[in-house]
Amino acid sequence: MTDPYGVTSGRGGGIGTVEHDESIGVVVVGRPPVPSTVRVLDTPAPPDLAASVARHRPRMVLIDLDAGRDAGVVAIATLATRSPDVPIVASSAAAEHSTVLDAVRAGATGYAVGADPTSMAGIVDAVVEGRPAFSPGLAAVVLDAVAAPAAASAPPLSPRESDVLRLVVEGLTARQIAGRLVLSPRTVENHVQRLLRKFGVPGRGALVRYAIEHGLA
C-alpha cells in the first residue's frame, strides 16, 4: 500500500514499514535513507513534525534536509524544544558542514550523509542506545563546533527585530514575513542576518532554538 508520500509496506531500502515487533517506530520527513530495522509511523511535512511526534510517540525522527534545508532545521529546533526525549537523525546527500552544524545545534543527535540505508541503520542503532552518531568525518567537525562556549544571556532586541524573530520561529519565509510586516523581503533578510550575528548562531534553525530556549519567542 502506498500513501501520498510514497510510503510502502514491506521490507527494503526505501521508506517502508516492517512487520516485526523489534522494529523501531520512527516519524520520517522527506526521503532520508530508511533501514529495514525501522517502522514508519508517519511522514509529515516539516511544519507538522512536532504535532505528528506528539500523536505517534515514535522512538526517533529521521529528517531529510535535502527536502528543504531551512524548514527542516526549524522543524528540528522546534521538536528538540517540545519533545527533547525524542532523538532526531538528520541526513543529506552531501556533507555541507554548515548544514550539519545547523542541524546539530538545532537539536539533531545524529547525522547521515548519502543514501545508504545500511549506514543509516548503524547511526539509528547508536542513537537509540543514547549515543550521538555521525557519518565518517563529521564527528570531529561537530565536536569542535559545540565546544565553543554559549553566550550567558540574550542581547536586547529592537521591536522590529522581535517581530521578525517571532515570525521566523513560526516558520514563515522571508517573503511571508515581508507581507505580514509590510517590508521588503531584502529588509527581512537583513534583519535575519543581524539576528544571526547578534546571537552568534549559524542559521535559521539554530536561531529558532536560541529564541525558544531564551524565551524570546
Question: What topology emerges from the helices and strands here?
Answer:
Elements (H helix, E strand, L loop, with lengths): L7 E2 L6 E2 L6 E6 L8 E5 L6 H8 L3 E5 L4 H14 L5 E5 L4 H10 L3 E4 L3 H12 L4 E2 L4 H8 L12 H11 L4 H8 L3 H15 L4 H10 L4
Parallel strand pairs: 1-2, 3-4, 3-5, 5-6, 6-7, 7-8
Helix pairs in contact: 2-3, 2-9, 3-5, 3-9, 6-8, 6-9, 7-8
Structure commentary:
This protein is an alpha/beta fold and 217 residues long. It folds into two domains: 8-146, 3-Layer(aba) Sandwich (Rossmann fold); 159-213, Arc Repressor Mutant, subunit A (Orthogonal Bundle), CATH 1.10.10. 44% of the residues lie in helices and 14% in strands. It is built from nine helices and eight strands. It has a six-stranded parallel sheet with strand order 4-3-5-6-7-8. Strand 7 (110-113), helix 4 (117-128) and strand 8 form a beta-alpha-beta unit. Helix 2 runs parallel beside helix 9 (204-213), helix 6 (159-169) crosses helix 8 and helix 7 packs across helix 8 (185-199). InterPro entries: CheY-like_superfamily, Sig_transdc_resp-reg_C-effctor, Tscrpt_reg_LuxR_C, WH-like_DNA-bd_sf. Pfam families: GerE. This is DNA-binding NarL/FixJ family response regulator. Keywords: DNA-binding, Transcription, Transcription regulation. It comes from Pseudonocardia sediminis.
CATH homologous group name of the largest domain: Response regulator
Q: How would you classify the helix and strand content by structural class?
A: alpha/beta
CATH class of the largest domain: Alpha Beta
Q: Helical percent range?
A: 40-55%
* SSE pattern: EEEEHEHEHEHEHHHHH
How do the strands of the widest beta sheet line up side by side? 4-3-5-6-7-8
